[in-house]
Write a structure and sequence with these properties.
By secondary structure, this protein is of the alpha/beta class. The chain has eleven helices and 13 strands.
């Protein structure tokens, strides 16, 4: 699974409306400069009244256009399932918002062209007042308004976070690990070759090797079957190796009725693989004894596996013959005595031959690990997953809409308090 995240706009063409903002900003600074360079001429009162009416009309139309544009565009974005640019209502809302920008530019132009005047009976009182310089903070309110407009346009462009998840081709095989848990697996003849005097039971050695084998898997689906006098599925085929490893760690001998039912174990393992679509289907059979409890003969089970295109790789665990076996005395102390454990390597060889697998014999952990690696080298690999792609988009226009509202509120607060003008 490959996952990627990218930022995109659902309606990128809306950003084209933002080209008017630099023009508005340039016009604002130019008109503000002219404002302080010009003086009122004759007919200032009449002109002031006309400007006041024009500004009032622009304000009324701007409020109506803003409400109508915001309602129309966001209604389409929230309700419509089709692309918004296909909706006439959405296009009409954008037109209204564009009209607001035009009206704002017109209003700024007229307001900056004419300075309000105050008629006094005499100008002698103003002679002693020093001439002040305009503060740079006078641009704060207009910039807040322009920022609000820019953020609104950004929100209308529908910024999105797109998360794409894609399946990739993976090669692997389906394998069922079939483990003998009869009491004979307690024999302690599975010591490493470099430490022949160590006492390690067959079941513990097999579990350690299988555990390391599971940790090395990345693309193979694994299943787990245990058997003694009967066979049971402990874990179906899965790619969740942690689950298989945890189940393996809890396996013990003596839980199932004692015996060795190799035929039953093969049939249960075949049932786990028969629905598989993988080209390579494998049963790795680990046992240390002769078949003595099967309800179906191992050779019949092997024929069924062959019909299902399933290969069986039997591994005979342990040396066979007389081996040390742990027993407890009446005081609970563990002692070891030599016990004869029957094996039938010819049976396992025939099972491997019928199912087109290979027979192995492991007398210690190193040999068992080499057997597992050799099995992998013999098997073909197949693709388990078809490629697919899924993209999930998350709308984040709220991140631009909220600062726009805050900018508008701050701009109004400044104009009504710190930057309030008279008249």
């Amino acid at each position: 699974m490959i996952r990627s995240t990218e930022f995109q706009f659902g309606s990128p063409w809306v950003l084209a409306l933002m080209v008017v903002l630099p023009l508005v900003i340039v016009s604002l600074f130019w008109l503000e400069r002219r404002r302080w360079q010009t003086t009122p001429g004759k007919g200032a009162l009449a002109e002031s009244e006309r400007v006041r009416r024009l500004l009032a009309a622009c304000l009324v139309f701007s409020v109506g256009a803003t409400l109508g544009g915001v309602f129309s565009t966001f209604w389409v974005l929230l309700v419509s399932q089709s692309p918004p640019y296909e909706s006439p209502l959405f296009l009409g809302g954008l037109s209204l918002l564009g009209l607001v920008v035009v009206l704002a530019a017109v209003a700024i132009g007229f307001k900056r062209r004419h300075r309000p005047v105050l008629i006094l009976s005499t100008a002698s009182l103003l002679g002693g007042i020093p001439e002040g310089r305009p503060s740079l903070f006078r641009f704060l309110a207009p910039l807040l308004r322009l920022s609000a407009v820019a953020l609104l346009l950004l929100a209308l462009a529908r910024p999105q976070v797109a998360t794409t998840e894609a399946d990739v081709f993976t090669e692997g095989m389906d394998m069922v690990l079939t483990l003998d848990v009869s009491t004979s697996m307690r024999a302690v003849d599975f010591a490493p070759a470099i430490r022949p005097r160590d006492r390690k039971s067959r079941i513990d050695g097999a579990k350690e090797v299988i555990g390391r084998f599971i940790k090395q898997r990345q693309q193979d689906r694994l299943g787990l079957v245990v058997f003694a006098a009967d066979a049971f599925t402990q874990c179906p085929l899965t790619l969740d190796y942690s689950v298989v490893h945890n189940i393996l760690g809890a396996i013990k001998t003596g839980v199932i009725d004692d015996g060795t039912a190799i035929g039953n174990a093969i049939i249960v393992s075949v049932n786990r693989l028969k629905e598989s679509e993988a080209k390579s289907k494998v049963i790795i059979l680990l046992t240390d004894g002769d078949d003595n409890a099967s309800k179906i003969t191992p050779m019949q089970a092997a024929e069924i596996a062959k019909q299902q295109n399933i290969k069986i790789f039997p591994i005979l665990v342990g040396k066979g013959g007389r081996v040390p076996y742990p027993v407890k005395d009446v005081f609970g102390h563990t002692h070891y005595r030599q016990v004869e454990i029957r094996t039938d390597p010819e049976l396992l060889k025939n099972i491997a031959s019928v199912s087109q697998g290979k027979f192995y014999r492991a007398v210690d952990e190193q040999a068992l690990e080499e057997d597992f690696q050799d099995i992998l080298d013999h098997m073909e690999k197949t693709r388990l997953m078809d490629p697919g792609k899924f993209t999930r988009t998350t709308e984040v226009f709220q991140l631009a809409l909220l600062p726009a509202v805050l900018a508008i509120l701050l701009e109004l607060a400044l104009r009504w308090t710190v930057f309030r003008r008279f008249p």
